[in-house]
Structure prediction request, 501 residues.
Amino acid sequence: MHDNGSLMEKIIPTYLQPIIFGSSDSTLSKQISQLEKSGKIRKIAPKIYTGNFEDTPEEIISANILQIIGNQYPGALLSHRSALEFKPTKTGHIFITYKYSKKIKLPGVTISFLEGKGAIEGDRKFVGALYVSQRERALLENLQISKKPGSESKTLTLPEIEDYLEKIIRVNGEEEINRVRNKAREIAQQLDMLKEFEKLNALISALLTTHPSKILSSPLAQARAFGIPYDEARIQLFEKLFQELNSREFIQRPEKNNSRTAFKNFAFFESYFSNYIEGTRFEIDEAKQIIETQKPLPARNEDSHDVLGTYQIVSSKKEMEVIPRSANELLQILQYRHKILLSARLDKTPGVFKDKNNFAGSTAFVDVILVRGTLLKGYEYYRALNQPLARAVYMMFFISEIHPFLDGNGRIARVMMNAELVKQGQAKIIIPTVYREDYLGAIRRLTRQRDPDALIRMLQRVHEFSENIYDDDMDAMQAYLESCHAFDEPENGKLKIIVRD
Prediction:
């Protein structure tokens, strides 16, 4: 014969489990009652107990709602939007196809039961005795008419459905979306959902551009229909940077290198530092020799051409006054400048957008099939900015974050940044060696933490520094840079801004 304590532990292994269900078994029911009376568990809803005394009943039920439904409503089918989201909506609604229509309110969650046919072949068993609509059935269910608005609706919005379909095409291609269409056709006949299938078929056809795309309402889906899908997460990041830049006022810093000689002197150091930061490193005298002779060093042909290519672009005031007046011009300018920049690196396909994905550590840049669309879509925010430095900051990060080429992305991003400043008669920006980690760290912070402030402040500071780099004498310009510790490695020095009269 067992004592109560040992039997209790045997029947309920731990009273700390988040959800304990009431039972019709008299022995188990008695043990649950004893646990509740002793304060080891508490009741949070009919036939639902927990050993969690820290979280609210709303939090506990929301986190475990699928387990609860699977236990208390065997054979229920997670359906409609819930079959695609697998969680309650923002207002706590979750949708179930069952043998009757009814609403049951639990703390934090409203279960909406919709009368309909239960699981069919292909619907998956999920948690306990709960099933979930297969993808194709869920898409058809989401195209039913719903009388409720927003998060109380059993269906996703049309743009959300379009985005879901577009993602299938983007990740797995047209073959997969056609498999979805064919399977949905079979299910529609089985469940008498032919009207819903007509809607689904029209959306897929529009996305594949086999039918007019006027029916599409999602911007992402519209972009797909026109053959220019874009990276939605990156566009949201560009929007955040745009909003921050648009809310600030930036100091005007007019160009002081107004003579042809001074402009070219600055361009030399601009080219030198831009390549150095990317790992193409020369001694200053070697770099001067390359520029003066317009010939590569014999042992470093490709590296020398990188410096020459950058200098060829940034030393031409006429070229640097060219900025994009349209999204298509942006593509043309990028490809033209990149072709010059990496002219000696044929393996990096100069002037051609990348044909395979690139990474920086664990960070994946924009997917190859989304590059053009993301450039075209992101241009809309650039176009709306007015202040020169705001446009320059946006352009630099915009190009750097997309990484549209196999190589040379950092250099081309800085070229595009400075073109914005030249066009408006502003001082260009140099990122000196000593400031490399500040520069790269600020970019990473915006990419990973969605914080634009560090990037903006960093470029404001280096713009103030660069405004003071001016002289018709290259040696004098170099001496100023040395006095500011510009050539030091980041671990050996700190950028010093010496304001000149």
User: Anything to note?
Assistant: The two ends are 97 Å apart (CA to CA). Residues 4-54 form one domain. The mean pLDDT is 90.
